[in-house]
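Below is just one:
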Amino acid sequence: MKLEEFIEQSKRPAPLVSGLILKGHCIVIGGFWGSAKSWIAESLAVSVSSGTPFLGLETSKGKVLIVDEDTPEDTLAERLRRLAKGIGKSVSDLDIVMHSQKHFILSDAKMVRALHEEIVEEEVSLVILDSLSSMLGMLSENDMGAARKQWSLLKGSATLFIVHHFGKKGENFGRGEVSFTAALRGSTKVNDAADTAFSIRGRGWPRVLKVEKQRHALGHQEFAVNLIEDKEKTWARLELCELPREVNKVEKIILPLFTEDRDKLTVDQVAEALAGAASKNEIREALRFMEEKEVIKRGVEAHNRYVYSLRTKATQTKTLKSNEPRKLGL
């Protein structure tokens, strides 16, 4: 092959989702059961199939094929209908081919070959597999090498989006005790096969998506997603929101300073009690955060000096939650 031909065929793939996902790539999203991985995948399917933005990012419109062995059919159908309505579309506007609860397994070469032929014939742009664990068939979770060979047949002709679950080690993910690769169920070959891998964190909305691996740097590394829906749950959509602010160590060490004997504190008194462990600016920021979280309240004493106290005795044992927004760098 001549150099010119090599360079021409080796051009960077075009984006499927601008700044996030490239065409023909293998994408893995990993997280705990019930962490909204399927919501993300289905929202992506609705956006790509209708040519509408995904989380505010432009998409390249194309046909989507969903292979779902995890979600009950009625739940999946209702969710897709709601997501379509949430962006002002009807199900007839969605160019999606469904394979729901068809017992698709990656260990069956005939099934994989038939799916690949359908992808080519239908000119599918995006294939979603939900979830990898439920499609292993005769393969064990520690034999992902064989599964990888099978799903690699699907990669290239279409973008492959794989939903995968965390294993037991995933309980320690997010605390810095285990890596994303170790948190995933099965062998390291799952993450090895991915061009882009996302972790998803959070037990409630909003959820935090973080890029754990990316062969091509595309710009977006961490962002938060919120579920927006009406009270009657007739429509739904996912939107970007501000990233949760992490509770810092200053806030954690300030709270125990409020006692029955010392229920009111000024910035100077907190600084004296911490004995240099935090600057006054850090203390002021921490107190402001605790006030916004309604853990403490602020009053004014003589000479316009602020004084802080717990709102109620019950809040003395209140746990600060890491869900305060900070600016999103997108």
Q: What stands out?
A: The longest helix spans residues 37-50.
